[in-house]
Amino acid sequence: MVVFKKPQSLSPVPTHYCPGCTHGIVHRLVAEAIDALGIEGQTIGVAPVGCSVFAYNYFECDMIQAAHGRAPAVATGVKRTNPDKIVFTYQGDGDLAAIGTAETVHATTRGENITIIFINNAIYGMTGGQMAPTTLPGQVTTTSPYGRNPMIQGNPIRVCEMLSTLDGLAFAQRVAVDTPAHVNQAKKAIQKAFQNQIDKKGLSIVEVLSTCPTNWGMSPTEALKWLRENMMPYYPLGVYKDIDAKEENK
Amino acid sequence: MNKVTFNTDLCKGCGLCVEACPKKIITLAADVLNKKGYHPACITDAEKCIACAMCATMCPDVVITVEKNV
Amino acid sequence: MSNKVLMKGNEALAEAAIRNGCLHFFGYPITPQTELAEYMAKRMPKVGGLCLQAESEVAAINMVLGAAATGTRAMTSSSSPGVSLKSEGISYMVGCDLPCLICNVQRGGPGLGGIQPSQQDYYQATKANGHGDLHLYVLAPASVQEMVNLVGRAFDVADTYRTPAMILADGALGQMMEPVDFDAALSEKREIPEKTWATNGTGMKRKRNVINSLYMNPDDLEQSIIDRFERYKKIEENETLWEELYTEDADIVIVSYGITSRICKSAIEMARAEGIKVGLIRPITVWPYPKAAIAKAAETAKQFLVVELNMGQMVDDVKVACECRRPVSFFGRTGGVLPTADDILAEIKKLNGGL
After folding, report:
1. Which residues of B touch A (CB under 8 A)?
2. Is C169 in the same domain as C260?
3. Which of A87, A249, B65, C248 is the most exposed, having the fewest neighbouring CB atoms within 10 Å of its CB?
4. pTM
5. Which CATH class is domain B3-67?
6. CB contact, 8 Å: A60 with chain C?
């Protein structure tokens, strides 16, 4: 019995990602969710600008490549004209929480019935390791070479916490992909984020704490350890909002 | 017997599967270079595999297929 | 019996879009365009459509991009500063070969400028509405009726050639009320190619579609641009529009578009009454530009006078079109100030005396 194989909706092509980059894991989890829910033929994905710009090459469903930060607006246009289709965006931290903050916040507060997969690896990968909106205080990047100083470069953004204040949000969970157990948790969260859309609940976001071994300057396994020791304390894992849970509590 | 298959040409030798394996039976083949120029992951003692798929779960490149003998 | 109704330009434009099958509008308030969005907000729910107010001009054009990517007729509208914000999305839509309609009800610039009518976005609309090698199909109507007439054509050209189209209006056209006949406006039905490229879900019946403007191989990017310019050539051949008045015997040919051309027409009649032979070429498409009409007029006319509401942005296009065989002079007001027919007549007389 096959217990693990490549999901159907993941394209059978090698990715351009660096060795040990966890984008590959998250791509697979998205494809597994699409397969599990049997929605490949109805799904339209929106790729960002950043390392995952080529996401349009890696999914078997229809794909649109959006301008930097604009994926939630593009997804809005797709979903509002095709309310019965399934629409997801796949965005990094620079795309979602810096240049696209307005689009993210407003798509959320409008309660756009879409799914956002948010990769937080605390750095700009594609341009070669610059400071991200989620770069940690003290973290060295090429544009914070002396470590991010909140007095100069300001503070990081906690996206799930911020969006949880908005009424249009149905579901926000922060997960990580540093261990098999966490990957399985992430898989469940991503599937729920798609299921919520099928159930027309509003916007669901899954923030995935991820690694960037190349630009962090460490081996892939060291990067997972760094994520656990540095990112998790600042960005605690957990469910930040779940309108289902609220209904149960009533 | 359980069966783990590595699509060796896709492997980037990142070693995440090596760390994930609870039986410590995966290694990066030091004497092999794949098409991409990486030392690909391979299994050292197939007999010990419990088909838990933790290696495949952590693999960013969908290199690994796991089959359980039932 | 005529079906004329009295309507404000902005509202007439919105109604015309709806009547041409555009049921999705994404916009943002800005003077002097706002009534267009307000009309859409009122009307769309009644016709089963959607008017969505975006968080910004940037978001609005990207919503249009998403809608257009699924093969849906969609539009946005704004005024000058807002169109600058949209230019990112416009460039992406060109790069993705996506059709849509953008309306620019121009006001004065640069910067926040003013809210009075202007034609200061001529360069932007015809030369560089976004980064990269690109053109838009740009229509510059001169009346509310013509604005309404051209909306269907703008959508059809956009769909046929897979390009964004623009209605380049101005604050005067947007704000003034004129009688409009919508029935007369419905253009001849065109055969629109099926949108097999649309990303509306594979339904597991076809290979996936990808809407994308990114090319890592420069040869591929170059080829995509060359292919697009082949389509631009067809647009130039098939879709260039202009109006001519008294050009056969004119010594002076005025070149003017939009609201300004109407003031010019009054000035021309006044000049003709005084025996001065003046004519008019009115570009209706400002891209593609009616070069052939200018070149033909250059064979008989002694000179050209460009009149527009800016500092002479169209002058170079006329010089290029007539290959500088005739002098090209300029008269205009800017910053939201309109010239009177007397102002233009005075300029005509000055040129006439100087010959």
Report:
1. 9-10, 12-16, 18-20, 36, 38, 51, 53-54, 56-62, 64-68, 70
2. no
3. A249
4. 0.97
5. alpha beta
6. yes
User: Domain segments of chain A: what residues?
Assistant: 23-248
| CATH number where C65 lies | 3.40.50.970
* Average pLDDT taken over every residue of chain A: 97
CATH number at residue C282: 3.40.50.920
- Judged by DSSP in three states, A174 sits in strand
A11, A44, A91: which to substitute to probe chain C, counting the most C Cβ within 10 Å?
A44
**H helix runs in chain C, sequence order:** 9-19, 34-43, 57-69, 80-95, 122-127, 144-161, 171-175, 182-185, 218-239, 258-273, 291-300, 315-321, 341-353
CATH number of the domain at A23-248, out of 3.40.50.2000, 3.40.50.970, 3.40.50.1240, 1.10.3210.10? 3.40.50.970
pLDDT tens by residue, B46-59: 999 999 999 999 99
Which ipTM did the prediction report?
A: 0.96
**Which pLDDT tens digit goes with each residue over A58-94?**
999 999 999 999 999 999 999 999 999 999 999 999 9
Strands C285-287 and C137-139: antiparallel
Task: Count how many domains chain C has.
Answer: 2
Cβ–Cβ gap A62/C210 under 8 Å: yes
3-state SS of chain B: helix, strand, coil percent to 5?
25, 20, 55
**Coil, helix or strand at residue A31:** helix
Note down the domain range covering C320.
Answer: 243-353
Task: Kindly report, residue by residue over A114-155, the tens digit of the pLDDT.
Answer: 999 999 999 999 999 999 999 999 999 999 999 999 999 999
**Confidence bin at C187 (pLDDT 50/70/90):** low
Neighbours of chain C (3+ CB pairs under 8 A): A
Instruction: Return d(Cα A38, Cα A34) in angstroms, integer.
Output: 6
Task: Test A44 with C72 for CB contact under 8 angstroms.
Answer: no
